[in-house]
From TrEMBL:
This is Cytochrome c-type biogenesis protein. Residues 10-89 form the CcmH/CycL/Ccl2/NrfF N-terminal domain. It holds the Pfam family CcmH. The lineage of its organism: Bacteria, Pseudomonadati, Spirochaetota, Spirochaetia, Leptospirales. The chain crosses the membrane at residues 118-138.
Length: 175
């Protein structure tokens, strides 16, 4: 696994800690944009998630594993999390909701589970649109070929009529 290919910045330097950081941040949702993981969340656009990443780094430096951190994000780190400098900054800034979520847990909604609803709807819409386009193409093409068939039948009939007229004129002249 290439550590340099991962998309988020970390202050951690040990490969095992970096691996743990990437594992945790790929399992947690971004606070500002819940449809992406916190790993993909931009520091510029979401300072809350940036601070949570620093909090995650602190937990990794304390020796917590990825599974433990993810579990505690869901169920809470407990009152001892209030001693973390990042959580203290949340409290000082008046963001007690975020501090409480870290202490008591964010619940299952913090987990970055893939939501297949949009994928399924997109595929269904694409399939439906494809069927309609095929139908319209065939409908458009079919009458055109039908008109050409009718036109060719009409021209054959005109040729036959002209030929019959020509034959009748010849017969008239022979009389």
């Amino acid at each position: 696994m290439s550590l340099s290919a991962d998309s988020t910045f970390t202050n951690l330097t040990e490969p095992d800690q970096i691996r743990t950081f990437h594992e945790v941040t790929s399992k947690i949702r971004c606070i500002c944009i819940p449809s992406i993981t916190i790993k993909s969340c931009s520091f510029n656009n979401c300072t809350v998630s940036a601070k949570l990443k620093l909090f995650i780094e602190n937990r990794i430096q304390k020796g917590e594993t990825a599974d433990v951190i993810v579990d505690k994000m869901v169920h809470g780190f407990g009152e001892e999390a209030l001693s973390d400098p990042i959580i203290q900054k949340f409290v000082e800034a008046g963001n007690t909701g975020m501090a409480n979520s870290v202490v008591f847990g964010f619940g299952e909604n913090i987990l970055a589970t893939p939501d297949s609803t949009w994928i399924n709807l997109s595929l269904a819409l694409a399939g439906f649109l494809g069927i309609i386009l095929i139908y319209l193409y065939m409908k458009r093409k079919h009458p055109g070929s039908l008109k050409r068939t009718q036109a060719s039948e009409n021209s054959v009939k005109q040729v036959e009529d002209s030929f019959q007229k020509y034959l009748s004129e010849i017969q008239e002249k022979q009389k």
